[in-house]
UniProtKB/TrEMBL annotation:
Lineage: Bacteria, Bacillati, Bacillota, Bacilli, Bacillales
Classification via PROSITE patterns: NLPC_P60
InterPro entries: NLP_P60_dom, Papain-like_cys_pep_sf, Peptidase_C40, SH3_16, SH3_YKFC_2nd
Transmembrane portions of the chain: none
Domain NlpC/P60: 211-336
UniProt protein name: C40 family peptidase
SUPFAM superfamilies found in the cross-reference section: Cysteine proteinases
Keyword list, A-Z: Hydrolase, Protease, Thiol protease
Length: 337
């Protein structure tokens, strides 16, 4: 009897070792945890640990977005295509889906996609997240300051002598106090910081953001003219085509899908001869009959503003006078009344 019990116990113990997950394996979270982006812009990757040495400024905490984007050659930027998925802004909420070493797979809230009902899923360094419960409460209950400049600085002091962090357009942080030309905001893990009141708009709630007109959307987009393209970009440091349109609408209180192919299936279809400012224009392979590969925004008078490709910057073109875009036009969608 004792011998049988001993053998059975040995089998159970050995089995627990043999079938235990290795530390390097991705572990799916049994209970989904939420956290907040703790860097000015978090870049999300298709897989963990695929970054190159030149990507170092984008994967630490803090990050230096300008150093990263301006140091890459064209070929190095082209390598990002397919290796990046999206980005998330300072203070943005994510749900942690998996962990693998120093990396986590997260779903970015507020970026609708068929890939996950929680938000856009991809990998990022764990060091770029904070899980401060106090910040979470402030995000839920406080008015917020939304950055309206392309980028803006947070400061340690009200006198703007000590720079803390350069943050992006459309970043939203809880407001603690307003003092004349400066606004005090909460941050995910570094207490309170100051920002110029001229760089932000303060809202009591998301619902308080006024419904935009087409011209409002056009003016929002025009402030980024000349900004270099960045694959997967959703910030004032660089946009891809759908990150540009997604962010323009998001900053004006309207959440649309993250990717162009999905943006092209939502909203209201619009005929070419009925286009209005703010409508999204879509372009597809096979002379407009294949899969959607690009999106821009109509600004009136036959013109479109868009973030075209890695070799270019945000620009305005006469869209239907271009042989390329005219031949690949596949339709338009409207997201405002």
């Amino acid at each position: 009897m004792y011998k049988k019990w001993f053998i059975l116990s040995l089998v159970v113990i050995l089995g627990s070792f043999l079938f235990a997950p290795l530390p390097s394996e991705a572990k799916e979270k049994s209970e989904k945890e939420t956290a907040y982006v703790d860097v000015s812009v978090a870049t999300l990757w298709s897989e963990p640990d695929i970054t190159r040495p030149i990507d170092a400024p984008s994967v630490g905490n803090p990050v230096d977005m300008w150093q990263w984007t301006e140091s890459m050659s064209l070929d190095q930027k082209l390598w990002l295509v397919g290796n990046l998925q999206t980005q998330a802004l300072y203070g943005q909420k994510v749900t942690i889906l998996e962990e693998r070493g120093n990396w986590v797979k997260v779903a970015v809230h507020g970026q609708p996609t068929p890939k996950s009902e929680l938000g856009y899923p991809a990998w990022m360094p764990k060091i770029q997240l904070a899980d401060e419960s106090n910040f979470a409460k402030l995000k839920e209950n406080k008015s917020f300051a939304q950055v309206k400049d392309t980028t803006a600085w947070l400061y340690d002091d009200k006198q703007q002598k000590v720079e803390f962090k350069e943050i992006s357009f459309n970043t939203k942080l809880p407001v603690i106090a307003q003092a004349g030309d400066m606004t005090l905001v909460a941050t995910p893990s570094d207490d309170m910081k100051w920002i110029s009141s001229e760089a932000v708009t303060v809202y009591d709630s998301q619902q308080e953001i006024p419904d935009p007109t087409g011209q409002d959307l056009v003016e929002t987009g025009k402030q980024f003219l000349g900004l270099p393209y960045l694959w997967a970009g959703v910030s004032g440091f660089g946009f891809d085509c759908s990150g540009f349109t997604h962010t323009i609408y998001k900053a004006n209180g309207i959440t649309i899908p993250r990717d162009s192919s999905v943006q092209a299936t939502h909203g209201t279809p619009v005929a070419k001869e009925e286009l209005q400012k703010g409508d999204l224009l879509f372009f597809a392979y096979n002379e407009g009959e294949g899969s959607v590969h690009h999106v821009g925004m109509y600004i009136g008078d036959g013109q479109m503003i868009h973030s075209p490709n890695t070799e270019s910057t945000v620009e305005i073109i006469d869209v239907f006078e271009s042989d390329y875009y005219s031949s690949e036009f596949s339709g338009a969608r409207r997201y405002i009344d």
